Each structure stands twice: as structure tokens, then as C-alpha cells.
Amino acid sequence: MLLCIADVLSADDLAALDGLLESGDFQPGTKTAGWNARLVKKNEQMAGDALRKAQKIVIDALNRNATFSAAAVPKQILPPLVARYSNDMTYGNHVDDSLMRGPDGRAVRTDVSTTVFISAPEDYEGGELTMETTAGTQRYKLPRGAAIVYPSTTLHRVEPVTAGERRVAVTWTQSLVRDPAHREMLFDLERARRTIFDKDGKTPVFDLLSKTWSNLMREWAEP
């Protein structure tokens, strides 16, 4: 499932991130790339204390977003990378590493990738997040504060930025539900029961959907 979510970052979040990006230290993005991805990765990533502050802002925003939580079913969200692209910087075709190290040094399986857009699309030219899917090539350049959530198994790239500056935060989630098809079914059920609840309250149909959602989660979740 590939999902675009509007307004993940609030105006206050964005203002704080703008300040951190203006004052933060940056290093070549190749320092965090895998052995083959570093051949096609050309960007800059925030480091130091500013990065830690930015990471908290992004993770807090994701944790309070009900749509993200329903879609990703997070077990653990890794600290985001905060990156900028300018002057023909790009990130060629790659698949995200299947295992990454969490803050405690333990391996975390990457099920869901998330890119949160800090720049507005009119602030830069090029820089589309491009997915190679069974439905063909799909390009995304979302509004400021929006996020795109997609399976970490997806082959994707960032097109060269030819003018301006593209600013994003990128993170990975290990889901309680490993199978992406199962996550999508649970997401659809969650949307259906919330729609019914908002319209009619706690009805027998809502209870039946809630029972099904809960029992499927019990069947599929890996705590």
C-alpha cells in the first residue's frame, strides 16, 4: 500500500524544522548509505544536536497521526534522517536496507518507509520521489508538511534537483503486521469502522467490524 497523508507536520513543527535546518550541521549522505546505495546517493544530511531535535519533532508528529498509525501499525519507528538536495543532488534507484540498527543497537526490520516533505513543491525544481511499481513509474512531490508511506520493498529514487532546495525527513518503521497485504486490509477495516462510528455511533455494524479488526490483528500481529 502506498499512501499520501496531508498535514502530518503542523505549522509549528515546520517553523521549528526550518530553524534547525538553517542552523544545523550537514554531512555527505553517503555516510549512512549501504555499500551499493552510496554509489548513487548524492545529498546532505543533518548531524549533531540539531538532528536529534528534528528527529523528535518528526517522530512525535507521526505518532499523533491516526492515519499513519492505522496504515503502518508501528512497532518501532527509527530516528529519521533529515536531508537536503540542491545543485543537481540526487539519489538513484535503490531499495532501502531490509535491516537497520535502532538506537539501542538492535536490528530493526524495515517494513514501511516514510518520506515527510519539509519544503514546499514550489521551492525547488526536480527532486520528485519516483517509485517503480507493477503499475508503472509513479512520481511524487507533495505539499509542505505532507508524508508518503510506502513498502520498504519498493524500488525508488529521487530525481536530480535542478533549482532550489528539497528538504525532507525519511524514516523506517518495523510494523506489528509484517505482511503488507494484511496491513492494507486492516487499514481498510479501520477506515470503514471509523466512518460508521462518525456517522451513526456505536452500532451493531460498528461492533461487528471492530470484532473482525481485533481478531485479524490478533491473528497477524507480531508483538
Automatic annotation (TrEMBL):
Keywords annotated in UniProt: Dioxygenase, Iron, Metal-binding, Oxidoreductase, Vitamin C
Signal peptide residues on this chain, from the entry's feature table: none
SMART domains reported in the protein's UniProt record: P4Hc
Binding, Fe cation: 94, 96, 156
InterPro entries reported for this sequence: Oxoglu/Fe-dep_dioxygenase_dom, PKHD_C, PKHD_hydroxylase, Pro_4_hyd_alph, Pro_4_hyd_alph_FE2OG_OXY
Cited Pfam families: 2OG-FeII_Oxy_3, PKHD_C
Matching PANTHER family: PKHD-TYPE HYDROXYLASE YBIX (PTHR41536)
Protein name (database record): Iron-uptake factor PiuC
